[in-house]
Amino acid sequence: MGLWASYAIARCAVKAFEEMGGVKLWDAQECTFVIDHASPALNERIANLHKFVRDFAVDQSIRLFDVGEGICHQLIVEHYLVHPRRVLLVQIHTLARKVHSTLLQQAYGLPT
After folding, report:
1. CATH number of the domain within which 79 lies
2. DSSP single-letter state for residue 30
């Protein structure tokens, strides 16, 4: 099972991984992190969050879409990052939430 997460949620996933005693990911090729909406960083707090995500991605050999490479919602579809058995951790914060969900469900056969 893989993991796809935007930078804001990636930190939560990493913290949970570490709290469970995780050291090395079993299959880092199935993981993707994205630094998108607040990039470049608006302040030091967000810059530190970006650094945390970058450092973990490099340490674990996780695919990382960095500043300027695209927005998470687009990258999911453009790079075929969603398929059965993949966990999505994203912040759905727009009115288009239902549209994104419906498109992904139809494109990848995800349950509603």
Report:
1. 3.30.499.10
2. G
